[in-house]
Amino acid sequence: MTDKSGKRIIIEGVTESGEQFRPSDWAERMSGSLSTFKNHRIVYSPMLQPAVKAGNKCVMLDPALKESNPELYQSILKFAQANKLKICDEE
């Protein structure tokens, strides 16, 4: 799911100063907020998924989450801003 423009918000596990963000499983932990279990496996929500971009851990955030769960949406963005993580859009 993406917004009408087809863009998702990508939060990269790299700080503005270029350092790798730790812990290394931060993206999976964050994405676990909306995950479920099926057949003993974790299934991530299409609205909040871990990913890898240019070798860096990332979180893909669907802007529609702002409508369905505004508190979670804001807490994710605040986390990224507080830790000075790179935030960009993807088409």
How would you describe what is shown here?
- With 91 residues, this protein is α+β, with helices and mostly antiparallel strands.
- The longest helix is centred in the C-terminal third of the chain and has 13 residues, at 70-82.
- A four-stranded antiparallel beta sheet has the order 4-5-1-6.
- 25% of the residues lie in helices and 35% in strands.
- The chain contains three helices and six strands.
Q: What is the total number of structural domains?
A: 1
Structural category: alpha+beta
Radius of gyration: 13 Å
**Spatial strand order of the main sheet:** 4-5-1-6
Biggest beta sheet attributes = 4 strands, antiparallel
Mean pLDDT: 89
Distance between the termini: 12 Å
What is the CATH-assigned architecture? 2-Layer Sandwich
Under CATH, the topology can be stated as Alpha-Beta Plaits
Low-confidence stretches: none
String of helices and strands: EHEEEEHHE
CATH superfamily: Uncharacterised protein PF12112 family, DUF3579
Shape: globular
Number of β-strand runs = 6
CATH class: Alpha Beta
Query: Fraction of residues in helices?
Result: 25-40%
Q: In oligomeric terms, what are we looking at? A: single chain
